[in-house]
Specification:
Length: 323
């Protein structure tokens, strides 16, 4: 297992395809962080230091940088890294005729597939660590604000949630590489599933929630109707890994967030009531944010475990013929 693990690490870090994808992710992340840093500096220059106290550094990850915030960008396009790492992890060995030779050695099937998954997960962990540290360094130089201990802890938990989320897509890509004999077929299947789960499924879930909880008068919705729609949207988001990741990231990186239904409650208030509510609300401590993010994190962990278990069971039951 150690030999397969080290070989896979060398293949991943030396792959031009992976390096190109990683460079694109880093470039877009730097651009988003730079634009978010400019917005934070503008708020600090306008005297918003008191309002931003305790979450200034976190705004580098949550403030929209042109089009997306960094956390939203990772939710939408971060899965590409996991797909690139896993879409040909097994069928490449099969097409080259090396799979039967490897399994003819004293290497069991479960050791082989587990080493493949752990190698990909290690590469994802190194990538996320490098990206987080570089962005923290850019924030220190660009914004000039030192993160607090709680902000560093929040970023650490956010790193863990991101790793579990990308690990789900690694497991999905590995499953496609086991099911499909060609690398092109597994790449197309992984990309199609990524597009459906990330872009189309949340929209379908919102449409289903709106149909299940319609407004009697759309021009003047009632508070009960807004809360019912919020609960329906929350239930619909449980089937989308991207929505779960968005909710968990928002709870961890935004200390002012009180819950998924807060937006629907605020929509029914006047502007004065909204201002007063936000004015006298303090920042949530980290343990409370963890409690709020825990259901989404556990759902993501379950999705990731299910993807790997399906890959494992499919591979150990497949017939491997010698070339």
């Amino acid at each position: 297992m150690k030999a397969v693990f080290r070989k896979e690490l060398a293949d991943h870090f030396g792959s031009s395809r992976f390096l190109a994808t990683l460079s694109l992710i880093f470039m877009c992340s730097f651009l988003s962080a730079h634009m978010a840093g400019q917005g934070v500096r503008a708020l600090l220059a306008e005297g918003g230091g008191v309002w931003l106290e305790g979450r200034t550094f976190l705004l580098l990850f949550t403030a929209p940088g042109g089009f997306f915030s960094l956390s939203v960008f990772l939710a939408l396009f971060g899965p590409l890294v996991g797909v690139v790492l896993g879409f040909d992890s097994v069928n490449r060995e099969r097409s080259q005729g090396t799979l039967s030779k490897i399994l003819a050695q004293p290497i069991r099937r479960d050791e082989f597939i587990l080493a493949k998954f752990l190698a990909g997960l290690t590469v994802l962990a190194v990538t996320l660590t490098a990206l987080t540290l570089v962005l923290i360094g850019l924030g220190l130089m660009g914004v000039g604000v030192v993160p607090t201990v709680e902000e560093v802890l929040r970023l650490g938990v956010f790193w863990l949630v991101s790793l579990v989320y990308l690990g789900f897509w690694l497991g999905v890509a590995m499953l496609a590489s086991i099911v499909f004999r060609s690398a092109g077929g597994s790449a197309m299947a992984s990309a199609a599933l990524w597009i459906f789960l990330t872009f189309f499924l949340p929209v379908l879930g919102q449409a289903a929630a709106a149909a299940w909880a319609p407004f009697a008068d759309p021009s003047r919705p009632q508070v009960e109707e807004l809360e019912k729609l919020g609960r329906a949207n929350r239930l619909a988001s449980l089937v989308s890994p991207a929505s779960l990741y968005d909710e968990a990231s928002a709870a961890l990186l935004d200390p002012t967030r009180r819950g998924a239904d807060q937006t629907f409650r605020l929509a029914a208030m006047s502007r004065v009531d909204q201002y007063l509510l936000r004015r006298f609300q303090g920042l949530l401590p980290l343990p409370q944010s963890l409690i709020m993010a825990m259901p989404d994190f556990l759902m993501l962990l379950g999705f990731s475990a299910a993807a790997f278990v399906l890959s494992y069971l499919t591979f150990v039951r497949q017939e491997v013929r010698s070339a």
